Amino acid sequence: MRKPRELEPPSTPPPSALTEVRVSPLHQPALHESGLRHTSGEALYVDDLPHPPGMLVAWLVTSPHAHARITKLDTTKAKAVPGVHAVLTHAEVLGLNNVGPVVHDEELFASTEVHFHGQTVACVLAESYRAAREAAARVEVAYEPLPAILTIEEAIRAGSFLGDAHVMRRGDVKAALAAAPVRVSGTVDNGAQDHFYLETQVSLAVPEEGGAVRIHSSTQHPSEVQAIVAHVLGVGRQRITVEVPRMGGGFGGKETQAAGFAAMAALGACVTGRPVKVWLNRDRDMMTTGKRHPFHSRFDAGFDEDGRLLALDVDIYANGGFSTDLTGAILDRALFHLDNAYFIPALEFRGRACRTNLPSNTAFRGFGGPQGMLVIEEALNRAAERLGLDPAEVRRRNFYGAAPRNRTPYDQEVKFEDNRLLRLFDEVMKSAEYARRREAIAAFNASSKYQKRGLAFQPVKFGISFTTSHLNQAGALVNVYADGTVQLSHGGTEMGQGLHTKMLAVCAHALGVRTSAIRVMNTATDKVPNTSATAASSGADLNGQAVKAACEQIRERLRPIAARLLHADPDEVIFEDGEVYARGRPSARVPFREVTAQAYLAQVSMSATGYYRTPNIHYDRVAGKGKPFHYFAYGAAVVEVEVSGLTGEHRLKRVDIVHDVGASLVPTIDRGQVEGGFVQGWGWLTCEEVLFDDQGRLRTHSPDTYKIPAFGDAPLDFRVQLLENAAQDDVIHGSKAVGEPPLMLAIGAVTALRHAIAAFGPPKHEVQLRIPCTPEAVLFAIEHAKRAASR
After folding, report:
1. Would the pTM of this model clear 0.90, i.e. be above it?
2. Cα–Cα distance measured from residue 269 to residue 759, given in angstroms and rounded to the nearest whole number
3. How far apart (Å, rounded) are the C-alpha atoms in residues 685 and 374?
4. Cα(194)–Cα(191) distance, rounded to whole angstroms?
5. Rounded Cα distance, 540 and 97, in Å
6. What local confidence, expressed as pLDDT, does residue 1 receive?
7. Cis bond before residue 615 (omega within 30° of 0)
8. Between the CA of residue 727 and those of 299, 417, 489, what are the distances in Å?
9. Structure confidence at residue 613 (pLDDT)
10. Which domains does the chain have, with CATH numbers?
11. Are 383 and 182 in contact (CB under 8 A)?
């Protein structure tokens, strides 16, 4: 097999795409470690792996009803199709027919009832997709339709819930609301959002000797896939190895929902004795997998006449779909972020998860945080519009600050020394020239009949840690070889977000070697066991500390060897840039590879595991109090939009962002995350509309009916800065998480759209704008504003 040609970077790379940095790559810009292979097509994903001999492919047989009883299931005719080796149903499951990640309420194959349109009833395994599809059409399934619950409102009326209510309280909210000079109430509804990762769900299972199975899976959570496959097969986890080469995007959609498809592949491999690949095309992926949770929220807010929030009473309802999945934790995080960046003196928050006959909704970037923030942002917008105040100033007046305005609704302290809200506000308002542009927009709107512009400020405060406390742990394995090269394994998975690039920097810095000497291995459960999902924006925080711990063990074992070679005291030895020298004698250097060669001869171990757990994380769900987060990440944006009063079409003219990533491990990676997160949030809020019909069938299951942002939807002028001099204590090298928080900065686009729409109406008009803010929704809001102006 021809060895792939190693691509060289451009001869004159731009400043943001620098080649390898000398001394230490930490806190320095760098290319994504797989960036060139992504562009050339040499990066391998699960579906790119060479097909093992005898491999079978799968085709799913799914329910045509949202809720029905299965009265007949016969696979005889399907098995007779040439090339078909097996048809898997609940009867073929060797262990437990269940893939529920937290609560065991989700069958791998529906046995007696189906609970959503597209639920898997059987899986055909054949030598070709043609044979598999033909056989799937011959599986005989008869159904008795049952009543279905499709909306949150229907679930509330029917009392159809998942889990218990979650409540947070502070002060006497009823009395505070009754005494408030200004009172604003309303509802907020947000829709779902499809993950639309470029690589759809896929798993390849290969049987090994002794009943073992190796699974190549596109998953964010290999340890959970391992655990679920083991209990589906009825074996111990030691017989299951899960390996993740990389993912073509995840966004939360592969945190839990990859496990079912891996289990089908593994079961098929055990039943047939042949490798099995389960891969979904785009339509099937969108129809059978869960999405961002739709929420229905009701709020009652009290303000003083200067726009300061006095009290907030909120009910939130999440549409969980047919099973629990991660809905409980997502509901919790939504409640945790109902405050966003603002102190609320008196409050009561209540949350419930609804069970409906739709695919089980799941993790998505932000994990409930965006849905929670939308509620308080709506309340602030409505109050600012009613009072005739600039929404940016209303937001500033409500920021967390010094005690007593420093306690969250769940009683965690927002440390004054770590609170960067005012600093971010000042920096972004100045760099974006907010005041000047606000005046210019007012003049433009006054002179333009059909086009209006809007400008808005948006802050974000986002808690970092898994809210399920025991998940805040990570491991790593580092092997240094006698020639001075390094293999690095850690528990995080790479889905394009640049985690491996950051771990390379951490490892190179700790060992004092160049990144070119390090190979990051595929994430695998036989290298690092019992890992948590790469999720909750915590991948670098957790795995970085574990990698650092492992590398430091090896470095300290090598220190006496290096000291002997340098004729120096061990405490004087410095590891740097692939060489070792003594402090004060930088000219006398020994190559790192010479130290490792001598260590091998001296019988010194150069392999180590590292482990880390986040300290002091706890939360009492019954009391609604605790410290669920290790720290908060902050960000701020100024967003400008332009709206057509004739069609409702709109565009982003300019976005200015200043985001707090602490002391960035790799600034180029973090900047990309900020840009991508914002655009994905813009898509959720303005153009991505998930639609089901009254039979529970997804109608937006391909790019021709489901619109995600394209290049042309990005801001015409996009300015992103990382907050400087912002190192965070007790986090890996002073950095901060970046994956999720920037997505919520896009909520500023809703406020900007409201500003533009309000220009069509009378002063102090409260805009009626639904989410997603599609052109239709914007046009309806404009017509409502015009009618108010004509009264």
Report:
1. yes
2. 63
3. 10
4. 10
5. 35
6. 35
7. no
8. 37, 12, 26
9. 98
10. 47-147+201-279 (3.90.1170.50), 295-467+620-790 (3.30.365.10), 473-613 (3.30.365.10)
11. yes
Residue 365: CB atoms within 10 A of its CB come to 26
Q: How far apart are the first and last CA of the chain?
A: 76
Distance of CA 213 to the CA centre of its chain: 29
CA distances from 21 to 124, 516, 520 (A): 51, 11, 18
Told to judge if 393 belongs to the known catalytic residues of this protein, a careful annotator would answer no
Instruction: Identify each DSSP E strand in 257-338 by its residue range.
Output: 276-279, 295-303, 309-321
Cβ within 8 Å of residue 607, ≥6 positions away: 477, 478, 479, 480, 554
Give the number of C-alpha atoms closer than 13 A to the C-alpha of residue 108, restricted to the C-beta side.
30
Rounded CA separation 155/148 (Å): 10
Bridging pattern class, strands 202-207 and 213-217: antiparallel
The letter for the amino acid at 30 is A
* 56 φ/ψ angles, rounded to the nearest 5 degrees: -105, 150
**Predicted pLDDT at 791:** 80
The 10 Å Cβ neighbour count of residue 600 is 16
Which ranges in 61-151 belong to alpha helices (H)?
76-79, 129-138
> Angle at the Cα of 119 (from 114 to 120), degrees rounded to 5?
105
Amino acid at 673: Q
Query: Which residue shows structure tokens 């159809």?
Result: 160
- Candidates 255, 740, 766, 783; catalytic one: 740
Q: Strands across the sheet with 451-464, in order?
A: 451-464, 631-644, 650-659, 717-722
What is the reported pLDDT for 166? 98
Residue 700 is which amino acid? T
- Please say whether the beta carbons of 218 and 45 come within 8 A: yes
Instruction: Answer yes or no: are the C-beta atoms of 418 and 402 closer than 8 Å.
Output: no
For residue 618, give the 3-state DSSP assignment: strand
- Find, among 747, 663, 739, 715, the residue nearest to 432 by Cα: 715
List the structure tokens of 158: 């029917």
Collect the ranges in the chain with pLDDT lower than 50: 1-22
Give the tens place of pLDDT for each residue, 446-485: 999 999 999 999 999 999 999 999 999 999 999 999 999 9
**pLDDT digits over 129-177, tens only?**
999 999 999 999 999 999 999 999 999 999 999 999 999 999 999 999 9
Residue position matching structure tokens 């004739």 = 646
